[in-house]
Amino acid sequence: MQNKTSILIIYTGGTIGMIHDPKTGILKTLAFDNIYRYLPVLENFNYNFDFYTFHPLLDSSNMHPSFWVELATLIEKNYELFDGFVVLHGSDTMAYTASALSFMLENLNKPVIFTGSQLPIGMVRTDGRENLINSIEIAAAKVEDTPMVPEVAICFENKLFRGNRTSKFNAEHFGAFLSGNYPPLAEVGVHIRYHENLILKPNFRKLKLHKQLDENIAILKLFPGIMENVVNSILETKGLKAVILETFGAGNAPTTPWFLSSLNAANEKGIIIFNVTQCKGGAVDIGKYETSVELGRIGVIGGSDITTESAVTKLMYLLGCGFSKEEIEQLLQTSLRGEITV
Ligand code: ASP
């Protein structure tokens, strides 16, 4: 009894627990009070379950860094009591929350598996049932008493991805997530096949929670024809400490003089400029094309193959830690939680 695997299921909101309002046809969050009602199969698991529900429940479009702190704190408080954690979360911003938690939970040695669904769990064709059951199995899996997946991951439609490598890319398909630059950590079929060589190894150090997140960042997504006043209004935002420059292809940007001098001025003012590609696969390679050479000279930092979700949360985390500009620029090019290929 004492050694029975124990899993904490944390419900934050999202489609998985929503219902259709018959009057309006709109999907709304609903208390997921009796999970066994929808999933009597949970009683067949030989695990101990506990449940925690957030109030209010959120459609994940209302997610905020202050909520990431609440969620990470809840995991920290329960860290020694459970073998693994399953977080039910809306898919819209799941990649942001999973990325944020990967940075906030330093020395994580237990599974934190995010899942949700595209159809509510009360619907006949729901994908929520399978996603939740797979996530529980993965959160409980061990190799010689050590968790099989000691990291923050997203389990959706029979695939397990590293959380800070994913993006939501489909609003309709059950396979809603993409990890363009890192293969799945596991694939679910008749068996759950873990790709052990791709999964982070436990370091057996004490969990360290980082709660300070600094939101003074912006995303500047480039498009042909972007205007000078638009670029400058972002770069001149009061209090701005870092900007994610979403570039074309392998990190390329216009070579127009006004654009380069705006970036240069921002960099000289102490703003970190982080070059992240708009592509869902592949990496930034500053200097590969003429259209990125000048960015390198200005001091723009290459984001390698990081996702925008991971870039946002990594910057909030690093700025929150109080590092200097130079230290942050160095750490942005270092893989802290397996978020980039170096
Ligand atoms: N709007 C929902 C949310 O992200 C969508 C979902 O759960 O998949 O909360």
CATH C-level of the largest domain: Alpha Beta
What is the name of the CATH topology of the largest domain? Rossmann fold
What does the overall shape look like?
Answer: globular
Q: What's the pLDDT, averaged over the residues? A: 95
Number of helices: 9
E-strand count: 20
Relative helix content:
25-40%
For the largest sheet, list the strands in their spatial order: 4-1-5-7-10-11-14-15
Q: Which residues form runs of ≥5 with pLDDT under 50?
A: none
Largest sheet: 8 strands, mixed
Short description:
With 342 residues, this protein is α/β, with parallel strands linked by helices.
Topology:
Blueprint: E1 6-13, E2 18-20, E3 27-29, H1 35-38, E4 48-58, H2 65-78, E5 84-88, H3 94-104, E6 105-106, E7 112-115, H4 128-140, E8 142-143, E9 146-147, E10 152-156, E11 159-162, E12 167-168, E13 177-178, E14 186-188, E15 192-194, E16 208-209, E17 217-221, H5 228-235, E18 242-247, H6 257-268, E19 272-277, H7 290-298, E20 301-302, H8 308-321, H9 325-332
Parallel strand pairs: 1-4, 1-5, 5-7, 7-10, 17-18, 18-19, 19-20
Antiparallel strand pairs: 2-3, 6-16, 8-9, 10-11, 11-14, 12-13, 14-15
Helix pairs in contact: 2-3, 3-8, 5-6
